[in-house]
Amino acid sequence: MNPSIGTKTELLKSLVVSTGPCRRNPHLSGSYQCKIPLDLTSRKSLPLPMNYGGTQARAHAKNVFKKYSISAKMAESLTYKDAGVDIDAGSELVRRIAKMAPGIGGFGGLFPLGDSYLVAGTDGVGTKLKLAFETGIHETIGIDLVAMSVNDIITSGAKPLFFLDYFATSHLDVDLAEKVIKGIVDGCQQADCALLGGETAEMPDFYAEGEYDISGFAVGIVKKDSVIDGKDIAAGDVLIGLPSSGVHSNGFSLVRRVLARSGLSLTDQLPGEAVTVGEALMAPTVIYVNQVLNLINKGGIKGIAHITGGGFTDNIPRVFPKGLGATIYGDSWVVPPLFKWIQKVGNIEDSEMRRTFNMGIGMVLVVSPEAALQILGDNEITAYRIGDVVNGEGVRYC
Known about the structure:
- By secondary structure, the protein is α+β, with helices and mostly antiparallel strands.
- The protein has 14 helices and 15 strands.
- It has helices at residues 9-13, 54-68, 72-75, 87-100, 128-135, 141-153, 174-191, 252-262, 277-281, 289-298, 311-315, 337-346, 350-356, 369-376; strands at 16-20, 31-34, 36-37, 45-46, 109-113, 116-124, 159-169, 194-202, 212-223, 238-243, 301-306, 324-328, 361-367, 384-391, 394-397.
- The strands form 4 sheets. It has a 6-stranded mixed sheet with strand order 11-13-10-14-12-15. Strands 5-6-9-7-8 form a 5-stranded mixed sheet. The chain has a two-stranded antiparallel ribbon with strand order 1-2.
- Helix 6 packs parallel to helix 7 (174-191) and helix 8 (252-262) packs across helix 12 (337-346).
């Protein structure tokens, strides 16, 4: 069902905001100003007169929407859950698994081995694969695969040792598979770890023609007295953000909904940018291994959060002791244009963006104030002071 906005009061209210008493006549209450988007690729909107009451506003909006053929779907605010991904359900599953296997829930799993811990992580690249199929860009999806696992295990301070992959398809296209594995090899070289082995599964009728799925597994090692576990984090510590290359490998179910709404193809130029939409979205995930391990060696890092699904809102608190939270300063880094385009076209709320995407920051370090000065003063490092640790749980934005 896709009714006209003008015929449904509840839908209209999503576009109409109360302005309180009219500036022209303070005795008129319940006046409205309607923000009707006329062009999803521009900032144009059509405001209603300030002295319009609710009934007049709805009638006027009905005519406007009819004139410009604006549908309810164009005005709806997209969410990750609407796109098919329920972050809360995922968190609930982790909570239940933790009852059966205590100790899980971190970015990587720790296994004691002598005076060290083996740290293991596993992941895939989600529906970014759908865009790989559509764009034909298969050479870098393996980098994404390696990044998602090794970036998780370095949050404990572990150096990646080796990586294993799983490649599954209905009919094995050797040339295509070679491109994917080449990306995995490239990713392992960036992470300074070995591609130890893998599994290729050919399962007829299970996947669509030309499609495949991949997953990866990384194992690293860290000395027990050097593990980063967040237990020493205190109020007054500083949050340092390391820039991402783009969306990385999370949120693509919502991205694909936005892309469908935009009317653009993957070969069209991203508005205001010199790259195509496909190129911007398929930019490989940054592998932070060498950068983060070098910073760890300099001291002062107390916690590390990999910003994946759940964004800032869910991932940063995972490294805090109970009773602590974070304040994030929204103007402390420049949000890349790609995220602004996604938010604008999808009419996505700020809170939803912050809980779905990395917003241009792929890794967050929790450091002492002294370490923050050292990191920010290093001209060879691109990093931002994005916030502070505060008393009180949760993440606040200002």
